[in-house]
Design goal:
Two copies of one chain form a homodimer. Chain A is built from seven helices and nine strands; from the N terminus they run E-H-H-H-H-E-H-E-E-E-H-E-H-E-E-E. A nine-stranded mixed sheet of chain A has the order 4-5-3-2-6-1-7-9-8, sandwiched between helices. The relative contact order of chain A is 0.24. At the A-B interface, strand 8 of A face strand 8 of B. Chains A, B: GO terms for molecular function: 5-amino-6-(5-phosphoribosylamino)uracil reductase activity. Chains A, B: This is Bacterial bifunctional deaminase-reductase C-terminal domain-containing protein.
């Protein structure tokens, strides 16, 4: 069992964007940040439900596919689920429609945890809880039944698990653009590499995949 | 004629370090930041004057060798020359001993420009001036006689030339460590990539070489 996280970041370390509008809740920068990932066949199949077989199949797709392998439970922050965008909508069911790509229990960390679980036919089940990283990880590990636990995001949720020393493998896809604003993955993580072996690989798209792996 | 800059930075963007002491004027972080470069055969030959042929000869060395090719003049900041460390030493001749690795005119930008040029037998000549990036580049271009001009550093000098749109090719060697402090190359450079083609390559050492090239 390993605890894993994957993020797309800019060359200057930003994993979140700040140009969101009500009409474009992810913002234009977000599209540029994740363009190589959303072009992959895995993303199209697994997140968009596109079974045409279209999409890129190179290095980016290999990382995209690995993202979905052997995950038994996920932990995400309230922002990634959308609670910051729709705090008063008690019927909000996440961004992903009726086929969320998780297919496992997903623990959503929120102070507003008095929400019923949301269960989907494909195995995805969102559960809401107010908990520390350690507490949430204990629950998710139990739910994962021996498979890996993914810390899905957003960036401050991943950072809190990194700071607590709870992540065994961190993969970042670095898009060679400079955003200059947002939340920086690397802030306050001086010396993180000392607990990991770090390897890098450049994809055909120009994205640089950097992996921090323990041991 | 192209204007070029090369820097070693950490994964979180820091190109300068903050743990300097009088005994160790570069600091321990600096040694970690440039370890792959200082291990190259080119660095050992060209900067240390070691003609033994020892040192690495892979991707890092290729970039190291390119650093010295076709340079007709260099511009550097006062800090890189050492004026911030030894402001009152009028006999200070730089960090590099009597064989500075430049072998061309080097324009040192300083408000304390009332200093005589320092001429070395190997072609290196330090000249001191108070000038804007544009003014300094005009002088350096003239001195370079058709060869390239290198913006040598430190990081704020390179950043000022980048911000002024004066750099044709920027190469950064990204060492996969997180320093968490110092001067960040990427600060306030949002959108820089839009003027360049960006390519990346991973060296045997694990350093990721990223190049911004115009056109």
């Amino acid at each position: 069992m390993a605890v894993r996280a994957d993020l797309n970041i800019s060359l200057d370390g930003y994993a979140s964007t700040t140009d969101q509008t009500p009409e474009n809740p992810f913002g234009e920068d977000w599209g540029r940040l994740v363009a190589a990932y959303t072009a992959t066949r895995t993303f199209r199949e697994r997140v968009l439900g596109d079974s045409s077989g279209e999409g890129t199949t190179g290095v980016d797709d290999r990382y995209g596919a690995a993202y979905f392998e052997n995950i038994g439970a996920e932990i995400m922050g309230a922002g990634m689920f959308g609670l910051h965008n729709f705090p008063d909508d008690r019927d909000w069911r996440g961004w992903w429609g009726e086929e969320p790509p998780f297919r496992c229990p997903v623990f959503v960390l929120t102070h507003d945890a008095d929400r019923d679980p949301i269960v989907f036919a494909n195995g995805t089940e969102f559960r809401f809880l107010a908990a520390s990283p350690d507490e949430a990880l204990a629950l998710a590990t139990d739910a994962a039944g021996g498979e890996d636990v993914r810390i899905g995001g957003g960036v401050d949720t991943v950072r809190s698990f990194l700071a607590a020393g709870l992540i065994d493998r961190l993969h970042v896809g670095i898009t060679p653009i400079l955003l200059g604003r947002g939340q920086n993955l690397w802030a306050e993580l001086r010396g993180l590499e000392s607990d990991y072996t770090v390897t890098s690989e450049v994809a055909e798209s120009g994205v640089v995949h950097v992996t921090f792996a323990r041991g």
